[in-house]
Amino acid sequence: METVEFLLSPFDNRRMANLCGQLNEHLKQVEERLGIELRQRGDRFSIRGEHGAVKVAQQVLDILYRSTSTEELSPEKVHLVIQESGFEEAPGDRQNTPADSQLDIRCRRVRVRPRGERQIQYVSSIRDRDLTFGVGPAGTGKTYLAVACAVEALEQEEVRRLILVRPAVEAGERLGFLPGDLTQKIDPYLRPIYDALYEMLGFDRVAKLIDRNVSVRPRI
């Protein structure tokens, strides 16, 4: 265990309140996710915990404080910054052990291992249930893990066809009028799914599977 003290500057009451969140919810989120003890007084912070977690916590707070100059922070933003830090050992998360290898998603080209308790629950739910909803911020692995589970099931002949369905609704982008047939019109909306398929199956194999084992269906 180690303790690190540091300052965040330039000090600004409004930005500091934005960083801490209502009732210090953002600081508590960092504490719980990284397994550290965090103390704050004005612009002075004290972090106590394991060396790796302390280092990541300081980096996360620095990034978040810089963000307060241009945006209002939210729990989702805090989550994404921690996620992008690459830190894996959150309290309550299961440590990877040989017994956890059964949780791996095995595809011919890649092997995917869920990271953290929520991803483990997500993958287990996909495998055990006919219908699973994944809700969360962007970048948390919802699409990638779902595609990996689908590819695994297809390769193990547990299913005969994959059906790709996505609402034809823009998610921040401005696609405008899209020419082409029905499949070409909705391709931009399915890009994250296609990217995952290409990584797990290869471009040539995905092209061969389209229409035979992979169906694309828009949902208006």
Structural overview:
The chain is elongated, with a radius of gyration of 21 Å. It has a three-stranded antiparallel sheet, covered by helices on one side. It has a two-stranded antiparallel sheet with strand order 4-5. Strands 6-7 form a two-stranded parallel ribbon. It has two domains: 84 residues, K Homology domain, type 1 (Ribosomal Protein S8, Chain: A, domain 1, 2-Layer Sandwich), CATH 3.30.1370; 108 residues, P-loop containing nucleotide triphosphate hydrolases (Rossmann fold, 3-Layer(aba) Sandwich), CATH 3.40.50. About 5% of the residues have low confidence. By secondary structure, it is an alpha+beta fold. Helices cover 43% and strands 15% of the residues. Helix 2 runs parallel beside helix 4, helix 5 runs parallel beside helix 6 and helix 8 packs across helix 9. A hairpin with a 4-residue loop joins strand 4 and strand 5.
